Structure of Small ribosomal subunit biogenesis GTPase RsgA:
Amino acid sequence: MPKGLILKGVGGFYTVESSSGIYECRVRGVFRKKGITPVAGDFVEFSITDETAKEGWIEEIEERQNFFVRPPVANVNQIAIVIAGTSPEPDFLLVDKLLITAERNGITPLIVINKIDLINEQELEEVKNIYVGTGYQVVAISKVGKRGYDELHEKLKGHRTVFAGQSGVGKSTILNNIMDAWVMETGEMSRIQRGKHTTRHVQLLPLDNDGYVVDTPGFSSLTLEGIEHAKLSSMYPEFIRLEGMCRFSGCSHIKEPGCAVKDSVQSGEISRVRYECYRRLYEELKLQYENRYR
Ligand SMILES: Nc1nc2c(ncn2[C@@H]2O[C@H](COP(=O)(O)OP(=O)(O)OP(=O)(O)O)[C@@H](O)[C@H]2O)c(=O)[nH]1
Ligand SMILES: [Zn+2]
């Protein structure tokens, strides 16, 4: 049976991309009975009912690697976390929440610093330095002169990427620029409008380099749930590298003396911004944990 990828679903019809072209497929009632609704990003097996009209039925939905509700999309493997150099000032706590969400779901994070036309070289370096020790990829871009866009294009290669970040950082602008430059023709496609991230018809847009982007950005706010505060430090790659070097085993890196993480913050090897985010999230999660049976 042919296999394909759902690009979008509207009113019970699903656009399925496969190696032999794009098909409009309907879904068997049995899925509805099982409470499964296919979404963009689902890998499926389908039967072809009409080869010339390119129509078929979705017969199987493969197990999802992950699933997001807002926007409803499955199997993304990269989150582009967008911040602006300025205007708005970066919400580093949200960045960390998104990084942690990515880590937990086995998704590669990509930090995108947008609006670099509004800051100088030194200010850009300061933002980049926050993440130097993490090993996360960072690209810096601007709509002005499309600076950095080729590098962004390169990072999207072979990935299914969803864009995320606080309001006003430029997610729609970036998506529109991507659509203008690298999205393959797949019929009608509307431009993405500011603040109108309707989650009803989420679409995966196929790029010219084997990548896809989700046309609806998401996660402008986020609460972390289900993470034990004691496990939080394992989501900070630059902390993991110091494992075993704190005086106390199981050090929370908050109040204990002889803490290698805090020493590294002092010496500037670990970014203070990252550490402060860690502290805040730690306290938040600890409170959640202590109130878990209330
Ligand atoms: N100077 C500058 N402005 C930019 C850049 N990218 C986007 N903007 C502007 O920033 C504003 C917000 O951009 P949007 O693309 O609407 O931001 P968004 O993240 O989609 O915002 P929400 O829809 O609120 O989530 C717009 O006025 C854009 O023109 C950039 O690289 N440089
Ligand atoms: Zn420690």
User: Anything to note?
Assistant: The longest helix spans residues 272-290.
